[in-house]
Design the sequence.
């Protein structure tokens, strides 16, 4: 009998079908990778497994017992443990005390049991935390905190361990060490599910991969089988056939520079997200920043819009915008299409657009809205509908439309293809083409879907682990990196 | 590793020893002020147990205090049961009413608990006014029972009660329960994912907080001989409790005692200023917050 059986699992969030009839099994002592690009619905599945969300339909059986209706703590007691990607450990307590927490029983106890500390030390030792027993999380590197989180999950003595993006935010070296650590766990007597967006990172660790896209399982099998699967290739890398550049326009090399980025460093507490990133966008150009999830694309865009602090400088038409506020930067003529879309969920399509036009005279505002409706006829049909009830693709169009009505000089798009079906991708692709060639907009695009980015771009920057490792024109990119990277 | 925690206990013991000598040094009027401060300190500690450890803001701790105080007072006036029993029943009423009206909100995520506690106090205030024939309305109640006529005995009663409350709450704060509460305040989903039914712990913390609030409210009534809205129910009292906790130092249990003394003694000392004294107390509070964001107690705890 399988340890975990998931049957016809369904989850809707409003109009979005986040988990679509998902079924799979995990056997005892099996290590499984749950893989999919960002927004594919892996997290939703994980949250359904631990009980953070209740499924709209379907069955989750653990050890032969249905658990889909149970609350989180009851499922944990049955033998499921989870290590979250983002956790907030006890900040005033030490590493050992954090591990002790997880050894406590769910009972009112006024005193600590004898031996609990020794138990915590034992677990900490196993994970190589000897040197930091008495340190607090705030004094520790990101990678060490991740180990402590793993220790906490192991302290629960689970039958099934869920690891949520265990490598996210780690440096190259830390990724290697952490993989080793996970590999050493495979000798223990429990099953592991590794949830990750990166096939490469997990393929050597797991017995089986379940690939997810748009809430559905698109392939299951051994890592080799899944990686060579056509559908998986297409989802992860985009349409192979359309690699040739559809974009006919080439910007004059002497065009003036609009945006100049020189970031020496950007970090969040312990984790350094960007180092030495230099990038130039000329007027009328279509520039892409490509890289896997976690490479630092979003951080770069956040820096451009002053959402985060950084070392270095960013110039707009020759003038530093480092010390400007976000609103001031937008008013200079740069619009942002964020990865998370950030629509006002309980406002209609038209209200969302109108909100972006508060500073514009009324008739002009109307005209501009009509203009974007002519680009996105779908939005015109949905103009009275609440943003939360739009499909993912429609929401993405609305986000782009909201940026367009502001009549920017340059538009910055962060992962516009995130979690979208291939057919919607086509629509978005056409819009980008139109914006670039017909509207003469300067575009800066962040993408993990290489093929999508390559189709449009004149210039490509490749980010990996916060470093810019290629800064080249399309031809150079294809020659030097493209084939290798895609393979 | 446990130095800061141990140190706060040492501070507590030092405060206790110093307080023993108060009646030998000061006039009986000052001793009276100290007595009130001791009961008030229990209000603040109870609030701190709930906010500091479980992260839930109780904007209506005077709901529990007021129920405790009024139940004990009404029982004392209308029945012949002994004073001690009145006080205990007051505390029981505070816990039960709290569990029925307020605790269900602890299951919800979001600001609901704080909002409901706020509403509960406003309700109680109206309730007292509407049922004026039992509660004395806006004028308040005079109770026949008193703890003692001696200011010394009253003071030592209050001191023992305060020390006992502090001990119980410190034990809980430093127990596995306290650790689980802190974890659920920090990251509720992760705390659940470690297998803890966090609602259970929050309800317990709320119950203990209600117990001591109710007890202290009832005791205060029999010390002063009166129960009134402005004394034990009004939102203004809640604000003083919260400000005291912040000034003294949240999440320390002992800090709130310092904060309570700071507020009560300062206000008494500034009494000649009349209404202006509130302004001065508020400004002093702001200054403490600006320069000691972790409260007065952080002066005595070494940072590492």
Sequence:
């Amino acid at each position: 009998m399988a340890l975990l059986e998931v049957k016809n699992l369904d989850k809707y969030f409003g109009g979005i079908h986040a988990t679509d009839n998902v079924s799979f099994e995990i056997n005892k002592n099996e290590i499984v990778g749950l893989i999919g690009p960002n927004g594919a619905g892996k997290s939703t599945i994980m949250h359904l497994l631990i009980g953070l969300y209740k499924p709209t339909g379907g069955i989750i059986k653990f050890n032969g017992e249905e658990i889909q209706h149970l609350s989180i703590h009851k499922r944990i007691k049955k033998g499921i443990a989870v290590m979250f990607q983002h956790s907030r450990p006890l900040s005033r307590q030490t590493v050992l005390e954090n591990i002790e927490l997880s050894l406590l029983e769910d009972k009112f106890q006024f005193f600590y049991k004898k031996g609990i500390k020794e138990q915590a030390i034992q677990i900490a030792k196993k994970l190589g935390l000897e040197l930091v027993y008495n340190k607090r999380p705030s004094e520790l590197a990101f990678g060490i905190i991740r180990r402590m989180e793993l220790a906490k999950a192991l302290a629960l003595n689970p039958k099934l361990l869920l690891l949520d993006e265990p490598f996210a935010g780690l440096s190259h070296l830390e990724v290697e060490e952490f993989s080793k650590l996970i590999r050493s766990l495979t000798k223990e007597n429990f099953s592991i599910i590794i949830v990750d967006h990166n096939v490469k990172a997990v393929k050597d660790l797991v017995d089986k991969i379940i690939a997810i896209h748009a809430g559905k399982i698109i392939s299951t099998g051994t890592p080799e089988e899944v990686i060579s699967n056509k559908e998986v290739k297409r989802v992860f890398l985009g349409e192979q056939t359309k690699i040739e550049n559809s974009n006919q326009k080439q910007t004059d090399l002497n065009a003036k520079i609009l945006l100049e980025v020189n970031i020496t460093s950007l970090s969040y507490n312990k984790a350094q997200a960007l180092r030495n990133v230099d990038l130039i966008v000329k007027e009328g150009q279509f520039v892409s920043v490509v890289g896997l999830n976690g490479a630092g694309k979003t951080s770069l865009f956040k820096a451009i819009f002053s959402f985060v602090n950084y070392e270095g400088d960013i110039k707009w038409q020759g003038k530093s915008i480092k010390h400007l506020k976000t609103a001031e930067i937008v008013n200079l003529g740069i619009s942002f299409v964020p990865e998370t879309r950030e629509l006002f969920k309980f406002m209609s399509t038209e209200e969302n657009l109108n909100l972006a036009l508060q500073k514009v005279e009324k008739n002009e505002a109307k005209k501009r809205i009509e203009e974007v409706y002519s680009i996105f006829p779908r939005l015109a049909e949905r103009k009275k509908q609440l943003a939360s009830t739009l499909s993912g693709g429609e929401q993405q169009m609305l986000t782009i439309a909201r940026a367009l009505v502001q009549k920017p000089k340059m538009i910055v798009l962060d992962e516009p293809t995130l979690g979208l079906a291939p057919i919607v991708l086509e629509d978005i692709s056409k819009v980008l083409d139109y914006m670039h060639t017909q509207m003469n907009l300067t575009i800066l695009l962040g993408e993990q879907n290489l093929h999508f980015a390559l189709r449009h771009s004149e210039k490509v920057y490749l980010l990996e682990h916060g470093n810019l490792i290629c800064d080249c024109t399309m031809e150079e990119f294809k020659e030097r990196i493209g084939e290798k990277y895609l393979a | 590793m446990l130095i800061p925690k141990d140190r706060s206990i040492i501070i507590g013991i030092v405060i206790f020893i110093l307080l023993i000598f108060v009646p030998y040094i000061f006039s009986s009027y000052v001793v009276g002020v100290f007595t009130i401060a001791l009961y008030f300190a229990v209000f603040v500690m109870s609030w701190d147990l709930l906010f500091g450890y479980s992260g839930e803001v109780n904007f209506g701790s005077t709901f529990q205090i007021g129920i405790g105080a009024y139940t004990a007072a009404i029982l004392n006036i209308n029945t012949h049961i002994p004073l001690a029993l009145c006080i205990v029943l007051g505390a029981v009423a505070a816990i039960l009413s709290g569990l029925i009206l307020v605790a269900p909100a602890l299951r919800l995520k979001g600001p609901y608990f704080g909002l409901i506690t706020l509403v509960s106090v406003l309700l109680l205030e109206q309730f007292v006014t509407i049922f004026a024939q039992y509660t004395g309305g806006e004028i308040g109640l005079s109770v026949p029972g008193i703890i003692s006529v001696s200011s010394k005995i009253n003071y030592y009663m209050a001191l023992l009660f305060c020390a006992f409350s502090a001990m119980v709450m410190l034990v809980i704060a430093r127990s596995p329960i306290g650790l689980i509460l802190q974890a659920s305040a920090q990251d509720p989903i992760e705390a659940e994912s470690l297998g803890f039914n966090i609602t259970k712990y929050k309800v317990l913390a709320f119950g203990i907080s209600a117990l001591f609030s109710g007890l202290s409210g009832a005791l205060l009534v029999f010390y002063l001989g009166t129960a009134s809205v402005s004394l034990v129910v009004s939102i203004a009292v809640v604000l003083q409790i919260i400000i005291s906790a912040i000034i003294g130092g949240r999440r320390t249990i002992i800090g709130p005692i310092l904060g309570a003394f700071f507020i009560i003694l300062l206000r008494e000392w500034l009494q000649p200023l009349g209404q202006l004294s509130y302004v001065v107390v508020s400004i002093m509070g702001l200054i403490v917050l600006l320069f000691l964001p972790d409260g007065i107690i952080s002066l005595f705890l070494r940072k590492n």
